[in-house]
Amino acid sequence: MIGWTRRLLSGRGLCALLLVLAFAPAAGAATRIKDITNVQGVRDNQLIGYGLVIGLQGTGDTLRNSPFTEQAMQSMLDRLGISTRGVPLRSRNVAAVAVTANLPSFAGVGGRIDVNVASLGDATSLKGGTLLITPLNSADGQTYAVAQGQLAVTGYVAAGEAESVTQGVPTAARIPNGALVEKPAPGELAELPQFVLELNNPDFATAARVADAINARFGNNVTDNGKIGGPVRPTALARDQRSIVVLRPPRISAARFLAMVGDLAVQTDAPARVVIDQRSGTVVIGRNVKISTVAVTQGNLTVRVTETPQVSQPAPFSYGETVVVPNTEVQVEQDGGYLSVVRGPDLDTLVQGLNRMGMRPTDIISVLQAIKTAGALQAELVIQ
C-alpha cells in the first residue's frame, strides 16, 4: 500500500485531498496466507457484565438519578450480611458500570484478559476507582470470566464555579489483565478434520491462488476411507470468493499444519474500486481502476451576499426616529469552465489527469460520480 498526499491551494483557503493509491503487489512480491485469511471458527468471544466501581472522590453516580446503582449497592451489601433495606443511601463514591471483554480462542482456565469499563449512570469521572468482582457472561448466559481490579483512566475533568476542562473520556477506563478466565470457550482445534480459511478481502482470483499454493506444498490427500491407492482429492479447494476448504493431512498436528499453511506466500488481487468519503474529502482509487477517454469541464459558481445595515440618525431637535436601513451587496464569481480530456489506461495517468485540472476534493468527487454515470469509469464506485 502506497500513500500519496497532495495539497491544493485555492484563493479561498487551503483544501486537502488525500488520494490513497492501492497498488497491487509488484512482480515477485507476495503476502503470507496468515496475513490475508483467518480460520473459520477460530475467533474471540465477546463478554459483558454489570458491576460497581468504588473509591471515587465524590464523582460517582447520584443515587437519586441512578436508582439501579442504589439497588446494586443494596444487593451487594445483603450478600455480605449487611442489611440496608429501608435506609436511604447517599454515597457519591460509587458508580454503576458496564464491563466488556473479548475472550480469545483457546484461552485456558486461569488465564487473564483485559477488560473495558464504562459508566452507566451520571458519574463524572472513574479516576481512582476500583472495580468489584464482576461476572462476565457470553451470549449463552454462562459465566466465562470474572473481573476485578484498579481502573486505569486516561481522561480527566477539572471544574470550578465558572469553567471546566475535560481531557479525553474520564467515564471510560481499562483494566489490563483485569479478568480471570473461569471457563474456556467451547471447541478444540485438534478435533477439526478440515479447516475453512476465510479471506479478509474476498476475491475469486486470490482464493484460487491460495488453494494452488497449498496444493503445491502439500499435494493431495487420501479420501475419508484412508485406503492406500484409493481416490485422492486436493488438500485445498476454493469453495467461493471468500472461503477455501483445507483438509488436514494425516500424521500432522492441526497447529503445525496451520502454521505451515500460514507461512506460504501468494500474490493477492483486488477488484477495481473507487471509495469516496464525502465527509472528509478522501478518495481511494485502486490500481486496477481505468477510465475511458472523456472530456470533463468543472466550473465553480460562487454567489456571495453581504448584509451591511446602516443606521439613519435624525437631525437634532427634529421629530424623526432612528431607523436601520438595509444595505445588501451581491457578488457573483465563476471560476474554471475549461474543457479537459481525461483518459486513464493506468492509475498514474488517471491521477495526473485529475491533478492537472487543479480541482478541489469536492470537485473531484463530483467528477468521478459524473464519469461513473456516463459509463466511462470501469470500476465499482463506493460512496460512504
Automatic annotation (TrEMBL):
Entry annotated with the keyword Signal: yes
UniProt keyword annotations, A-Z: Bacterial flagellum, Cell projection, Cilium, Flagellum, Periplasm, Signal
Keyword check for S-adenosyl-L-methionine: no
Domain of life: Bacteria
Entry's localization field: Bacterial flagellum basal body
Signal peptide start-end: 1-29
InterPro entries: Flag_FlgI
Short name of any one Pfam family annotated for the protein: FlgI
Family, per entry: Belongs to the FlgI family.
PANTHER family hit by this protein: FLAGELLAR P-RING PERIPLASMIC PROTEIN FLGI (PTHR30381), FLAGELLAR P-RING PROTEIN (PTHR30381:SF0)
Function (record text): Assembles around the rod to form the L-ring and probably protects the motor/basal body from shearing forces during rotation.
Subunit structure: The basal body constitutes a major portion of the flagellar organelle and consists of four rings (L,P,S, and M) mounted on a central rod.
Protein name: Flagellar P-ring protein
Organism: Ancylobacter polymorphus
Name of the gene encoding the protein in the UniProt record: flgI
